[in-house]
Amino acid sequence: MSSPASSPLTAAAPDRASRRSRWLAREWIWAFVLLYGLFVGLPWLAPILMHLGWETPARWLYAFYSLFCHQLPQRSLFLFGLKPMYSLSELRQVWPYEDPLQLRAFIGDPVFGYKVAWSDRMISTYTSFWLAALLFALSGRRWRPLPWWALFLLTLPIALDGTSHLINDLLYGIGERGFRYDNAWLVALTGGRLPEWFYVGDALGSFNSWMRWISGVLFGLGAGGFALPYVDRSFRELGETEA
Questions:
Q1: pTM of the predicted structure, to 2 decimals
Q2: Which residues span the membrane (predicted)?
Q3: CA 27, 28, 34, 35 torsion: positive or negative?
Q4: I need a labelling partner for 111 at 20 to 30 A (CA). Which of 12, 95, 213, 222 fits?
């Protein structure tokens, strides 16, 4: 017995799926730049919403991005306040806590402003990866993947900086103490030639701040330069199988 003829709708379904696959193989990088750019940009919307008085959607954003970041206020940027960053001593004026879970709950207030929904290191890491994707798209996806050794070198700064901060926090707590707070080792290494504010604390322009920004950018660019060409190769192969 012969099988019944396929209906036009049934015959068209595989063709539509094939067209979508070919489109995705060609344009996936621009879709990624758009969607990932939205993911990168939304943490900046949280303090804007708080400033406008739209607290419920702002708190949704803080809660969502807390899954990706510690959101400690002394390592976060603030908008609409007196300063872009605050030390723990300054934050204790309105939020007298040192426990990390209680500290991260501080969103801000009308005087201090409101923090971006993730920390400075996350901003530099995620944004630089997005920038790598944008440059990859603008280049026509012509990059060769970074070699393993280059990725290792670009990852090393964030690994050293992040691990040393973690050890410091485990040994001395989140408070203003420890070898990654005063950086006495760096004072000795440089002979104390630089201003005290550069060595001590996490303020913008300090050594700790520079290390978080620079190491995050290096890692984000390195990860993008390494991973994106491999992802693109997979999508190209998908497009060829659907052709």
A1: 0.87
A2: 28-50, 123-140, 146-167, 210-231
A3: positive
A4: 213
Cα angle 211, 199, 43 (rounded to 5 degrees) comes to 40
What would the two tokens of residue 156 be?
């090393």
CA distances 109 to 44, 113, 158, 236, Å, are 16, 5, 31, 49
**pLDDT tens readout for residues 118-129:** 999 999 999 999
DSSP state of 92: T
Lookup: tokens for 82? 């007196």
Query: Over the chain, what HEC string results?
Result: CCCCCCCHHHHHHHHHHHHHHHHHHHHHHHHHHHHHHHHHHHHHHHHHHHHHCCHHHHHHHHHHHCCCCCCCHHHCCEECCCCCCCCHHHHCCCCCCCCHHHHCCCCEECCCEEECCCCHHHHHHHHHHHHHHHHHHHCCCCCCCCCHHHHHHHHHHHHHHHHHHHHHHHHHCCCCCCCCCCCHHHHHHHCCCCCHHHHCCCCCCCHHHHHHHHHHHHHHHHHHHHHHHHHHHHHHHHHHHHC
Identity of the amino acid at 164: S
